[in-house]
Amino acid sequence: MSHRSSPTEIFTKCEKEALHLSGAIQPHGTLLAANRDLIITHIAGNAGQFLTFEKPLQPGDPLPHVLAQFLRNLKLQTGKRDYRWLKLGDQNFRTSTHLNADDLFIVELTRVQEKIDTFVDREAYVPVTRSDLELEFQRITKVIAVLTEFERVMYYRFREDGDGEVIAEVRDHQSYGSFLGLRFPAADIPQIARNLYIKNPWRLIADIDARPVPILSASDDTIDLTWSDLRSVSPVHLAYLRNMFVQSSLSFPIVLADKLYGLIACHHSRAVAPDSARLEYASREVRSHALSVLSYQASERISLLQRFSGDYHVLLDKMVGSNLSILDVWNEMSTWLLHTFQAGGVQFIVGHHLLQTGIVADTELLDQLDYFLKSRSDPYWATSHLRSVMPQVRLTEICGVLSVDFRDSKQQSCRLLLYRSEHFYEVAWGGNEDKPEERHAGGLVLGPRRSFEKWVEKRLGYSREWTREDSIKANWLRKTLSEISIYV
User: Fold this and answer.
1) Please, which of 14, 113, 232, 282 could form a disulfide with 147 given CB 3.0 to 4.6 Å?
2) Residue 316 lies in a domain
3) Do 89 and 230 sit in the same domain of this protein?
4) Looking at the structure, do residues 280 and 262 belong to the same domain, yes or no?
5) Do 412 and 271 belong together in one domain?
């Protein structure tokens, strides 16, 4: 019997790939690196096509005076880009310059056709309602479509489980089909790539068929391209785009509090390389949008906790003010918990005591959960598909679990467990992620799936999903319960 590789296995090679050490760039620009003595340590093989000095530049050469003076005038910090206009001879360039992790000056140059000297900062708009937020998703997608002129622009938002979902889309008449409402598996964008998205204002792949340009060096050291705009592309990602019939792609990360919230993903059926000035302008719009979303989330959190804490404090006052044990108020408290979290069962472990109501874990499952949760450092944990994380679990009504661990003011070990039973529903995917194999003359080859046509999965063994609101409420509950003494 042949082994059927999972999507996770297929992308393992991409996850392990040191993307920042590709040793090459895309050819729509050029790159050179210099040390603190302004001696060239690395230079792209196509530099001569962009830079016309008296003699070709090579590793070990001092920087030409104009470039050396250019760097002396910059005040750079590691990983922080400086964008400038630079005229060399009769050519205009847009430069992106930064210090990399090895303390090298990295200078990237692209030719420019237009010059935008000033940016008009838009004051971040704070959505008030959920519908306001959805309109903001649509607005920024439209803005980026207009600025970039790409044929398809999508708002790709990451879910709590790592999967992505297209929640807004703008496309022209040449774009076949729609990805709106489709979900894409977490493995489509490995964590190593997500980390690079956080560190870069955009990611442009100008032409998937362009041959990467090697970076030359006098030593065997591979240059760190973590913050490079021109960094070459993973072969796995190129195959992915090719299977989507995309020739050029552009992504702007939406970063909230140093976490990747989503991407504005742009696709084009022809090779295209927008001027970096236009990309900078679009990037500023996306950052302003990120502030809008962050402000909405902060406001929503305050409003949610105000509503949530009101009912909770009624119970707390009854328990603490009347010197009652949790057992005395358990019927009322468990009913409130089940309603608040839309759960089918709840268990509360205080020291060696167990209180429970509804559909709950038996002794064997409790022991398995305890073993699993003790291996985690995060006091909050939730899953809507228990068997995916604990496949050894026997047949049970429980499909979803939310757990919070804490110690009360007496330092008693406490754990609150909420359970949800199975909920049948469908998920519309962008292609079937379980069919990634390709057949070639040499046999079966693993790669990205070839079709991104809508594929509907009928989900069995899943509960209703735990939401961001559930997480906020559970963590607030953990904090407040840890501040009191709990008597049984």
Assistant:
1) 282
2) no
3) no
4) yes
5) no
Range of the domain at 74: 23-111
Calpha distance 195→17 (Å, rounded): 13
Cα(417)–Cα(382) distance, integer angstroms: 10
Q: Specify which residues 416 forms β-bridges with.
A: 348, 404
Cα–Cα distance, 228 to 20 (Å, whole number): 8
CA 245, CA 257: separation in Å to the nearest integer?
34
Same domain, 348 and 470: yes
Residues 6+ apart with CB under 8 A from 398: 345, 359, 360, 361, 365, 386, 419, 420, 421
284 and 330 assigned to the same domain: no
Domain count, the chain: 3
Residues 161 and 94 in one domain: no
Q: In angstroms, how far is CA 287 from the centroid of its own chain?
A: 15
Q: What token pair was written down for 391?
A: 């496949």
- C-alpha span between 83 and 271 (Å, rounded): 24
Contact 92, 250 (CB under 8 A): no
Burial class (CB in 10 A: 0-12, 13-18, 19+), 69: exposed
The total of other beta-carbon atoms located within 10 Å of residue 422's CB is 17
- What are the pLDDT tens digits along the chain (488 aa)? 444 445 555 556 656 778 999 999 999 999 999 999 999 999 999 999 999 888 899 999 999 999 999 999 998 888 889 999 999 988 899 999 999 999 999 999 999 866 655 556 666 677 888 999 999 999 999 999 999 999 999 999 999 889 999 999 999 987 778 999 999 999 899 999 999 999 999 999 999 999 999 999 988 889 999 999 999 999 999 999 999 999 999 999 999 999 999 999 999 999 999 988 889 999 999 999 999 999 999 999 999 998 888 877 777 777 766 677 888 889 999 999 999 999 999 999 999 999 999 999 999 999 999 999 999 999 999 999 999 999 999 889 999 999 999 999 889 999 999 999 999 988 888 877 665 444 434 443 445 566 677 888 888 899 999 999 999 999 999 998 998 878 77
Cross-strand partners of 171: 152
Are residues 176 and 97 part of one domain? no
How far is C-alpha 136 from the geometric centre of its chain's CA atoms? Answer: 19
Paired tokens of 347: 């268990």
